[in-house]
Amino acid sequence: MRIAIAGINHETNTYVRDETTLKDFYIQRGEQLFRLRSTQTQTGGAIDACERLGLIPVPVYLASTQPSGTIAADCYATMKAELLERLASEMPVDAVFLDLHGAGVVDQCPDLEADLVAQVRLLVGEAVPITAAFDLHGNITQRMADALDGVFACHEYPHIDMHERAGDAIELIKHMLEGNFRPTVQVETVPILMPTTTTFVGIGLALRQRMRELEANNADVIQVSFFHGFPYSDVPQVGCHVVVTSRSDAHQARLVAQSIGNELWQQRESFRALSLSAAEALDVAQAATAKPVVINETSDNCGGGSPGDGTHLLRAMLDADLKNACFGFIVDPEVAQQAHAVGVGSSIDISLGAKYDDMHGEPLLLSVYVKALHDGRCIMQAMAKGSRINYGKIARLQIGDMDIVVASHRSQTFDTEPFAAVGIDVKAKDYIALKSSNHFRAGFEEIAGTIVTADPPGLTTHHIEVFDREYATQPLWPVDPAAAYDEA
What we know:
The chain contains twelve helices and 19 strands. The protein has 488 residues and is of the alpha/beta class. β4 (95-99), α3 (112-124) and β5 form a beta-alpha-beta unit. The longest helix is centred in the first third of the chain and has 18 residues, at 73-90. The two termini are 42 Å apart.
């Protein structure tokens, strides 16, 4: 049995001013997808599952890039056309697996996934199973679900199980082909704008466990996917979503989804985030006795579309004259290039960061020592373990008792590799600062004595009330007091 593997994967922050164009995407075609074999990614998990189950993976096309602004219409049209053309050239196939995100937005098309899945369905026909794996930060619609036979969002945030959910999607395909049955997929939307909420502790952990218990205790339920949603998109479908893939009919699947929706709505106050300014976060960090203290700057998280060059937290750390501290990393290709030009052992004057806009701070005018340089090519060690990542040219700059890592390509800090690449042992530091909302936990949870979240101004702030909502179709909690959920 031949299983086609394809996808367009993008998390779109519609509040980012710049459009995302074709040159921003990393595109893999045909057998290039096999580079992801044995990596803890969605496509890697699908390939591995096919080979484990005796199915033939047919690699087609995969386009992905960092979270960023709205996708240009011509860019999406080009990618979609090539994906469909390449898929058509591989037909007939027995099934299709799609690597998607769930929060893709194209200019004039607010639901990338619904549009793409509908076109794939039209091409392969109603009889061919199609399943998909997703990031849990998706804004999901029933229109998309109606074209799929199975929806599999990762359960964890950090997303350490992407490959496992893709494996589940492939297993469903095998069961459908061998058992000759058709699942139903039902979406229940709850009008909540959820701040970034980890599943490692607290309410996120409790809800993850609740979903798994429900699956285990209901023989008809194949998968419960809890999409936290992506609040940094102004689209009609924004919110939280429960998606139930079930062997039962649509009515029964809908009842299961609604029962979980009721629970989410009743517990909504538990999702409120503690939002600390940079100065407040440093006060908490300096009072902490369990070291090292990891300070994550959630509001300038490239993993949600921000520029990664914000200076609010770094400025506060320098003003506080923190000892035995490191910051990794700030995105500034100009400064990284400047450091590479002069070489290790040189001292230079720099204007660091805040080049994207005024929201994320003002440039830092510093005199620094160039301690180490690196080409930025790393292997991910925690989330998406085994996959390649390129941070561009990296420089380790020193000022006082502070190490500052500067990178050239936008990304959040997933693990310790950007520090290790330039010779920083984070375990020996008292303070480790980084830009990420929760993915960093996969690489730092076991290292950190204390974790403190800083939330100064930025495009991924927990203060979601600062973002205008032009296209939302209903009042949303917590920004609108009129928000209500029709509890079944």
